Each structure stands twice: as structure tokens, then as C-alpha cells.
Amino acid sequence: MHKASQVTEQVMQYIKEQIAGGEWPLDSRIPSENELCRLLGVSRTSVRAALQRFNVLGILESQHGRGTFVRSDKVYIPGPKELRLNALSQTDEMTKETFREWRQARNVIEPEIAYYVAEAATPELVRKLKRINREQEQLIGQQELFIQKDKEYHMALAEFLGNKLIMQCLESLLNMREMQLFVNDKFGYMGGIYFHAMITDAISRHNADRARTLMLEHGRDEEQSSRIFDGMAERETLDASLPANALLRVTEKEKRQ
Length: 257
Description:
Elements: H1 3-20, H2 33-40, H3 44-56, E1 60-63, E2 67-70, H4 93-120, H5 123-137, H6 143-161, H7 164-174, H8 177-187, H9 190-204, H10 208-224, H11 247-256
Organism: Moryella indoligenes
GO molecular function, one term: DNA binding
Protein name: GntR family transcriptional repressor for pyruvate dehydrogenase complex
């Protein structure tokens, strides 16, 4: 991944730690962009990109002339390979193989759906996706209803594309209830909330390449398992697929260059 994207991910990791660790409590104003740049030794572009993502997720709110405020402490970003839960390790081989095939099929289809939808997305579609996202977040902990709302989100993209064969194929995959329950049991709720918000933002900006990439990462996050950050502030190292090396290492490297 491009270096600028890596630095943005590390800034996001730092922000997550400050919120999850209680350093930045709810409704508090966080340091300004310039202060964060000086503190972390990174560019303003990287800081601004990280803040924008957390604004999209509803975790931060930037107000013109006033600053940026913490609006939620439910902070999730995809976790490091070294710390990922091996969610499939205790699952029988038949179920694991079925899951891999199911996930592979979705990974082949859905990133391309996201790409073409982003190219032609209308304001009406974006409003619909945002509504579904809000409703899904309210269903955390209600497994059956959450899964149905998850299906509604993914089908909304396919329906907008309008290809009946693709719609039928995706619906058949999403109707595999045992796989949907398996994913929710093993990987929880927050991965979907995070990626749906980010994908919706990319679609609203007609950024087809980013929408495709995020949808693929969404699938890989389930496939490799996800980490839910529950308030523990800890230093983490991300691999190249979901990069965010320890911030100190990166800033030291940047200073040497």
C-alpha cells in the first residue's frame, strides 16, 4: 500500500488509542490538525484524511471554526495480523471449507458491484445506504435482525446495479443463513458497521476504486477474522494488507529519510 495510506492508518490507530484509553473522553475537543502534525511528526494531509474517516464513522465531529470533538467511544478499525483471533481454528473442517468457498464467491462478486455502483450512484441511493447503516448500528446485539439488515445493505447495491443474474447470485449467497450466523458468531458486529460506513462514503464520492478496495477488505476482514477494540489502549502493529506499523517506528523512519 502507498506510504501516505500507511501513515493515515497509523494516525487512525493513534486516535483510536486516545479515545479507547480515555485520554480523549466523549464530547471533548481533540488537538487541532496542526497540533497532531507536530505531535506525530506526519503531514497535515495524513491527519486530515484520518479525521475525515472518523467523521464518516460518527466517532469524531469536525465543526468549522470550533475544532473536532469526540462523539462516540465505540472505536473499531481492522486489527493486526499478529493479534487476530484465529476464529476458524475450533471449527470442523467441513464448515471451514464451506465458509471459504462462500466467502470466496462473495469476494469475487461484491467488490465489482461496489465499483460499478460507485460510478453511477445517485443521492437517493446514498441516503438509502446511510439509513440502512444507522438502522443496522441500532441492532447490534440482535443477531437475526442485524443479519437481515446486513443483507439489505448488500442487496441494495446489487439492486441499484440492476443486473438480475447478479442479484439472484448474490441473494442466494446471502440467504445461506448458516454462513451468516457463523460469521456473526465468530467475528461479531463492528466489522460490518465500520466497512459499510466507509464503503458508503466512497460511493457517495463516486470513488469507484476505493469502493472496490474497501469491499474486498471487508470480505478479507471476515475471512482472516477481525478484532473488536473494546476500550483497551494497546500498541499494535499491522501487516501490509491492513497496514499500521507502530507509530513510533514510522515517525522515526520518516525522520531518518
